[in-house]
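Before our next group meeting I need something from you. Please put the record directly below this note.
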Amino acid sequence: MTQIFVFTAGNSKARQHLEDSIKRQINADTVFENFPEFRREELEEIRKRANGFYAWGAIPGSRNRPNWESMESEDYVLCVYNATYQYIFRVLAKYDNKRFAETMWGKDDKRRTWQLMYFLTEPVEVGRHISEFGDYLEPERYWGFTKIDDGKIGHIISSYGSVDRLIAEMLGRERDDLHPQLSIPLKRRQERVSRQLRFYEDYSREEVHNIFAPDTAFTPQSGTWGIQGIVPIPNRPGDFVFFVTLGQEQAGYVFDEGITDDGVLTWQSQPHQGSSHPQIREFVEHDELKNSIYLFLRTKGGAKYTYLGQLKYLSHDTEREKPVHFQWQVLEWSPPEEILDRIGLMLQPPLDVTDEVVPAAKSRLEEAPPPPPRTRKGKGTRAFKTCKLPDPSVVESRNQELGRKGELLVVEHEKMFLTQNGRPDLAERVRHISAIEGDGAGYDIESFSLEGEIKYIEVKTTRGPAQTSFFISANEVEFAKQHQDNYYLYRVYDYEDSRNSGRLYVGNGDVKDAFELTPTQYRAIRF
């Protein structure tokens, strides 16, 4: 339902704001410099739609924020002063942007700013006294930022047939003849129905439904998409949408959920689900390389959900059931500060206060036996609560500097081993191939056994524990297969930057014999 909002410009400061951002276009550089780069494309669309940038804002408060949060794209906005409707606009987009507001309008006497801002279409002059439409809007005066209540909107629709027709009459036009600057092309209406999924944008449940299941019916406050927190995506086994409201209560149970600074989400299943529930077993076995779980989160009921990204399974609590407690890692986790402020998300510090003490390595690179196979058995309640750390492999896979440090430690380790065991001649011949040739050889270092046989060494480095997964290229896997007797994988783990030290375990032979390899990408050629 199309809504109508009203803002007043009765004092001198508001009139100056009117001059700065309504009567005159806002300088485009001012807009782009005060919004994050990922907003650039949508801001360009706004500028194109309005033939420039026009904006207004409200100071956060108990009345203003609920009004602003209920505002939707295409709603009407009226500007009032001197008891007259001066201008009319339509909403194009809204943002909680303190930086833009302070740059554009400064601060009030209480050091607050008009950060609940919204971009508008080009202003259209009205010039009608408020008493002329008192039966449908406010009959005498307005105070600040006002939303015309649903009862009045219903009265408008019953009398005029639509809000558009009332607006046409206010402008002295035919009932179905809107001013061109207020007309919303069909394309825009279609875009509203089927939006694209973008990081950190806000979505209603219906909008999420229209993205993932457009061919199914949506019923507000009912059914799978209208009310449930865990939603399977149709025709995509293993893919889900999570709707999360932090701090929510269900049937007297308060969910204990949150996100750490480095993107570890503590999440709970539905209260009736135990560890044997098929959906819980599916979550425990979730592989983010094969299936997707999409996280939509809000911090209070009634608000839209913000899309934060896809999830990777980390662990679950084996001692608590109904609900089952999980830890997930939010992939590609890098939310701008303004997004966290806008949705009111307070991040928790990373937590690692387990009793397990990892002693410092005795040497720069201390060798240890390979770890046992990693399982998804979860962990007990105490360990679950006291350790909330991400999977290092997610961020380390693209960390070339960390990889280089590990390789240099291995080069030093090999030379020292050969020298201390009477083969300084071979130590002089150790070569750091990836530093000389780049990463195309299929291995990183050439070294030797004490008998003089060549060793092709591939180094994988992590700050995490020995069981941390790692990425290996098809080229490296194939090289290992072709040179099984001479191929060695050196896994450097528990790497400490401050000491430039770590631990090491070594595997020899075809990597397929010692590791479970998951294909993450294929090259397809038609045959």
Residues 394-513 form a domain with the Trna Endonuclease; Chain: A, domain 1 fold (CATH 3.40.1350).
